[in-house]
Automatic annotation (TrEMBL):
Organismal lineage: Eukaryota, Metazoa, Chordata, Craniata, Vertebrata
Secretion signal, residue range per the UniProt entry: none
EC class name: lyase
GO cellular component: endoplasmic reticulum membrane
Protein name in the entry: Very-long-chain (3R)-3-hydroxyacyl-CoA dehydratase
Enzyme Commission identifier(s): 4.2.1.134
Catalysed reactions, semicolon-separated: (3R)-hydroxyhexadecanoyl-CoA = (2E)-hexadecenoyl-CoA + H2O; a very-long-chain (3R)-3-hydroxyacyl-CoA = a very-long-chain (2E)-enoyl-CoA + H2O
Regions crossing the membrane: 205-224, 287-306
SUPFAM superfamilies per record: HSP20-like chaperones
Entries under Pfam families matching the protein: PTPLA
UniProt-listed InterPro entries: CS_dom, HSP20-like_chaperone, Tyr_Pase-like_PTPLA
Protein encoded by which gene: HACD3
Function: Catalyzes the third of the four reactions of the long-chain fatty acids elongation cycle. This endoplasmic reticulum-bound enzymatic process, allows the addition of two carbons to the chain of long- and very long-chain fatty acids/VLCFAs per cycle. This enzyme catalyzes the dehydration of the 3-hydroxyacyl-CoA intermediate into trans-2,3-enoyl-CoA, within each cycle of fatty acid elongation. Thereby, it participates to the production of VLCFAs of different chain lengths that are involved in multiple biological processes as precursors of membrane lipids and lipid mediators.
A GO biological process held by the record: sphingolipid biosynthetic process
Length: 325
């Protein structure tokens, strides 16, 4: 005779963007929680209504959800948060109209739709007020609004910078491809992935320093190239072009590294870009693992670029050959 499947008591509540599940099991360790084909699977050893046993349940959601549940263990229960694919109010939790016997509303967190809308509106107003105060406050606070002020322009400039790499690849310019490609990929990774997809990173002061250092380098580099196209050599600009990089490139690399390090806890918490390897491996690969590898590549790329720029500087400002009398 097969063992009877034990189901724990589960309480639920919702907001427009999230679902909250509270599983009444105590002393749980390492539960197996996953979402496959819009079905939440739960299995864990813990102490419930039937004593210390293995408990499990499955819930097919009414509408689409994101397949990365986040859970938190306490001594008395397991709290699970599931993100909805579309921010909207659900009339019920499950696809089946009849509510499962083990499922009940969580009245400690329960809100009607109108109350939830007021809560959502209040949070949005609080966020906007915070941004407004930061932008109108002291000069130090203005650092935190850099992304929202400059993001569109930086997106445009960084996409346009791909032309420089393409020109080097097809021979329009004599510049080597590798340093240009390293800079293009590195900057776009920081801008589009670290800053662009993680809202928590967009209000950090490091964004100001990254954008400022990038722009400082290009202020002298591109005018130098433009004058070179018409065979003009302005000595002051040439000196700046081959000197400003000495402090700017290491500082820029340091600022980019800080932004990556600050983003690692955020990616771990949200599970963004993480994935689980298919059966039979079933190992979750966190995106933060790739970020740690990227930090090593970042400093290797800095070495390649500095080596290239040092050779260029020596070619322009190296010691002149002594005249033979």
């Amino acid at each position: 005779m097969e063992n009877q499947v034990l189901t724990p008591h589960v309480y639920w509540a919702q907001r427009h963007r999230e679902l909250y599940l509270r599983v009444e099991l105590s002393d749980v360790q390492n539960p197996a929680i996953s979402i496959t084909e819009n079905v939440l699977h739960f299995k864990a050893q813990g102490h419930g209504a039937k004593g210390d046993n293995v408990y499990e349940f499955h819930l097919e959601f009414l509408d689409l959800v994101k397949p990365e549940p986040v859970y938190k263990l306490t001594q008395r229960q397991v709290n699970i948060t599931v993100q909805k694919k579309v921010s909207q109010w659900w009339e019920r939790l499950t696809k089946q109209e009849k509510r499962p016997l083990f499922l009940a509303p969580d009245f400690d967190r329960w809100l009607d739709e109108s109350d939830a809308e007021m809560e959502l509106r209040a949070k949005e107003e609080e966020r906007l007020n915070k941004l407004r105060l930061e932008s109108q406050g002291s000069p130090e606070k203005s650092f935190y609004d850099t992304f929202h002020t400059m993001a569109d322009m930086m997106y445009f400039c960084q996409m346009l910078s791909a032309v420089e790499t393409i020109n080097a690849a097809i021979g329009v310019t004599q510049s080597p491809v590798m340093p240009s490609l390293i800079q293009l990929l590195g900057r776009n990774f920081i801008l589009f992935i670290i800053f662009g997809t993680v809202e928590e990173m967009q209000n950090k002061a490091v964004v100001f320093f990254v954008f400022y250092i990038w722009s400082t380098v290009e202020i002298f580099r591109y005018p130098f190239y433009m004058l070179s196209c018409i065979d003009m050599n302005w000595k002051v600009l040439t000196w700046l072009r081959y000197t400003v990089w000495i402090p700017a490139y290491p500082l820029g690399c340091l600022a980019e590294a800080v932004s990556v390090i600050q983003s690692i806890p955020v990616f771990n918490e949200t599970g963004r870009f993480s994935f689980t390897l298919p059966y039979p491996v079933k190992i979750k690969v966190r995106f933060s693992f790739f970020l740690q590898i990227y930090l090593i590549i970042l400093f290797l790329g800095l070495y390649v670029n500095i080596r290239h720029l040092y050779k260029q500087r020596r070619r322009h400002f190296g010691q002149k050959k002594k005249k033979i009398h």
